[in-house]
Amino acid sequence: MKTTVFLLITAAFSTGFFITRHASQKSKVTKHDSICHVYITIDDGPSSGTTFINEIVTTYGIPITVFPIGKNVYKNDSSINLFHLYTKNPLIETGNHSFTHANGHYHQYYSHPEDVMNDFDLNADTCYITSKIARLPGRNTWRINGRKRTDLADDTASADLLAAGGYAVFGWDIEWRCDSNSTTRVGGNDMLQIVRKISLQKNTFTPGNVVILFHDSCFADSLYRLQFNLFMKGLKHDENFVPGKLSSYP
Ligand SMILES: [Zn+2]
Asked: How far is the CA of 217 from the centre of ligand 1 (A)?
């Protein structure tokens, strides 16, 4: 299996947040490709950013998919209440991102695929996740309708086991990060242009479909929220963008 390479977008902007995107081969652009299906996915919640996410999704009426993790959900009463903001909002779909998130030890985690499966089962049971939509902790790996892309070789067996268990495993085409030490950042309108560009270039796992990775905790940052609001406004008012939940991914 090939190793995923990430490219850091190096264009600098005065405000905003930098991104990484999956590198793949360029292909020809045609006039039939103007519609861009966009999937906002937000990992590792709930967090202090959750309330904002719930509100802005409702404001714009834009569907999203979240990937909370059980150990964050069951941290305390407050985190359980935040999680319920997601489960009660019909615009928000909940996917499975494991209970432990590998506790940060990814290579060791993926050396025991059965335990990975048990970790996803535990998350489904404790967080009442009924969808069969999954994302591996720390790995940009895909298993969708028989198509596959593997990030690092160590997660191959775990991804295959989840797929055999009926899960659609989603990686991401582009990530909008919020690292405070970054010197290369993009804003909301710039992000819209980049999403459109990689869609037109068919530079995604499925042409015409762009899965964007966000992190729940980023939304605690007021500047990030400001830029995300611009992004959502653009998604809402540009008819070439069609936002959807991952359950509608082809
Ligand atoms: Zn994660």
From this structure: 11
Give the Å distance between the CA of 61 and the centre of ligand 1.
Answer: 25
Side chain identity at residue 103, one-letter code: N
Q: How far is the CA of 101 from the centre of ligand 1 (A)?
A: 6
CA 139 to ligand 1 center in whole angstroms = 8
From CA 55, how far away is CA 90, in angstroms rounded? 12
Buried-state track 29-62, b at ≥16 Cβ within 10 A, e below 16: eeeebeebbbbbbbbbbbbebbebbbebbeebeb
Q: Is the CB of residue 57 less than 8 Å from the CB of residue 91?
A: yes
Q: What is the pLDDT of residues 18-76, one digit of tens each?
A: 555 554 444 454 445 689 999 999 999 999 999 999 999 999 999 999 999 999 999 99
32 within a domain of the structure (yes/no) = no
DSSP three-state, residue 135: coil
The answer as to whether 213 is a domain residue is: no
Determine contact, residues 152/3, Cβ cutoff 8 Å: yes
CATH number at residue 127: 3.20.20.370
Please give the tally of structural domains in the chain: 1
Domain membership flag for residue 129 = yes
What digits encode the pLDDT tens for the residues 63-101?
999 999 999 999 999 999 999 999 999 999 999 999 999
Q: Where in the sequence is the domain holding 139, given as residue range(s)? A: 44-206+232-248
Residue-level length of the chain: 250
Of 189, 211, 237, 169, nearest in space to 37 by CA: 211
Q: What is the CA(72)–ligand 1 centre distance, in A?
A: 11
Cis-peptide into 68, omega within 30 deg: no
Residue 134 lies in a domain: yes
